[in-house]
Amino acid sequence: MSDDLRALYQAAIVDHDRNPRNAGPLPGATHEATLDNPLCGDVVTIRLIVDHERVRACAFEARGCALSRAAASMMTTHLVGQPLAALRALAAEFEAFARAAPDSTVPSRLGDLSVFVGVRAFKSRQLCAVLPFRALTEALARAT
Fold it and tell me: Which domain holds residue 64?
């Protein structure tokens, strides 16, 4: 496996793909969105319970590649307790990070999400990692 591919599938990504956090349905969700990537078949649904402009609970369901499932799992670990404005900013920052040039600086604010730096070298895989963040943005825009 090349160094680029090895970086793409770092241990944290493999762990979140095989042992996803916050996976499954979320009864009582107040916000929900499902998005797909028609190029590869990934489908991600994000569900949230929002109360007083903060996420109180979250869950996801994802079908597709390890990157989209792991990104959804890792993303949801950052959501609970956060104000909606901060989550919109996180989604925008992650997308900019994933689409940046491979040698660009990695923002320290992304914390463990920076393991997705490997997607920068693979334009076709960037949407896989970004898809859950786009679903989050869509879910925040609409209440169920």
Answer: 3-141
